[in-house]
Write a structure and sequence with these properties.
rod-shaped; 4 strands; alpha+beta; 3 helices
């Protein structure tokens, strides 16, 4: 007499083994997707902050570099961008040489650049200390 349901027990065991193989792969893919999203979001946020600082830098009534750096830090929002990681360079329109921020004139080019150290959460879970340096920059003409 044949035993009923014998094949079903084997199929159940096979499903557990397949799950044990496929789940870690799926988990790594999901974590990679989340980390990639955080990386892109951080880069876009940094780029936006630098653009806001550049817009402030080209205005004639901007008092100094500290106002531009403060604008970049404030616009970066939840990213912790230090004012020391923001650089401003003014290039003379006629000679192409670098000059001071207060000496900028209409037509000069102002470059605002900022860096941010991105640390993936996944590496910290596994005891790693990996960081990626993101750089955002913009160059605008003084109005």
């Amino acid at each position: 007499m044949a035993r009923r349901g014998w094949g079903r027990d084997g199929a159940r065991g096979q499903a557990i083994v397949e799950f044990a193989i496929a789940f870690p792969v799926f988990l790594v893919m999901v974590m990679g997707l989340l980390e990639g999203g955080r990386l892109v979001w951080s880069y876009v946020t940094l780029s936006h902050a630098v653009q806001e600082g550049g817009r402030t830098a080209v205005l004639a009534d901007t008092s100094g570099e500290s106002a531009v750096k403060s604008k970049v830090v404030a616009a970066a929002g939840p990213l912790t961008v230090a004012t020391g990681n923001v650089t401003i360079k003014v290039t003379d329109k006629s000679s192409g040489t670098t000059k001071g921020f207060r000496a900028r004139d209409v037509g000069d080019r102002v470059e605002v650049k900022a860096t941010f150290a991105f640390t993936p959460v996944v590496t910290s879970l596994f005891g790693g200390k990996t960081t990626l340096t993101l750089t955002g920059s913009t160059e605008l003409m003084v109005e």
